[in-house]
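Handout, page 2. Input:
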Amino acid sequence: MMFERFAEKNLLDALNDTPVVLIHGSRQCGKTTLAQLVGEKLGYYYLSFDDNNQLNSAKNDPVGFIDNLPEKVIIDEVQRAPEIFTSIKASVDKNRKPGRFILTGSANVLLLPKLSDSLAGRVEVIHLRALSQAEIIGCQSSVMQSLFTRTLNHNIKKTGYVKLGKKLHTLITAGGYPSALSRASENRKMAWYRDFTSTIIQRDIQDIASIQNVSILPKLLQLCASQTARLFNVSDLASPFSVSRPTIKEYITLLEQIFLVGQIQPWHTNRLSRLIKTPKIHLADTGLACALLNVRSDDLAKDRNLLGQLLETYVYQELQKYASWQDNNIDIYHFRNKDKVEVDFVIQDGKYITGIEVKASATIQASDFKGLIKLRDAVDDSFSNGVVFYDGDTILSFGDRLFAIPYAAFLAS
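Output:
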């Protein structure tokens, strides 16, 4: 099953003016497919470091390996041969022609020691995530686009949306990995995620680090899944293990480097006091999280707290995917103060702010906008919109720049 990847435009734009383009993201998210699709159109030679012969050649003679490559080349799984980065740098410095190298990596090579400096000023990075709902259905949401252009389009229909109910639970448990989505049943999707987790930890962690307690990582990842959308607490994550907090923090960093876990940083302003400065932790995909927790769609209807957590992570990942397609730089934060007034997501585009709250219910109340009102009043003219997502059927106004928006509109479902 082939899906249109909206990051293709970003890739083509980067190839027009940048010598090296790195597509990174977790294994099986579609990096190779995207690179080969574009590469076939533009005449790129493809090689992969999953081929041990290519890998050994690159490791043993990185200078000769790079010098003997065609003018335009795709190098897949580049994190397996960090030795070549210096040689790529030297080659690019001799010939800065745009679009010479397309690299893909299943680990964030820019966080690896000594590598981030090698390609500074020579590389553009495209973070490819699992499929968004827009890519799955082949249609971008006009509501979502409006949120990223700072004004809610008045031409968007206000009524007639369908409450998603159990469909929303199914979207959460299915996740966004193409190979999982190609499987017919929920049980088969979960089996794919379990195999994927085992393979990626055993393989990709070994490519980037030597650690003694690899056996801890599956359990730690499962614990991260149970904590998704919660404030990051190293003590809670370390408590089941007989290792130190610094070691657990190091292992979390490794899981971040292979794109299985992420942190959303706190938003702050001098106009507000008593702000919580702790990041939140999020799993990279809710299908993965559900498989780790052995949670099926029917289970979510019985556990509203878990549904709330996973729904918040699902919305976060959708927002991240949309943000990555925009031409301007967009940052996503969370906001919370010590009085527990909070906004799940603060989208910052330059000086402009959009706040988003995530609710699992089909009803909406004025009190659901408490955090958004606090945010609006703090940033004043920089505030674009405050949105509460809910499982209703109508877009509703709740005051100055405040709206309740159904999930069906947000997801274009």
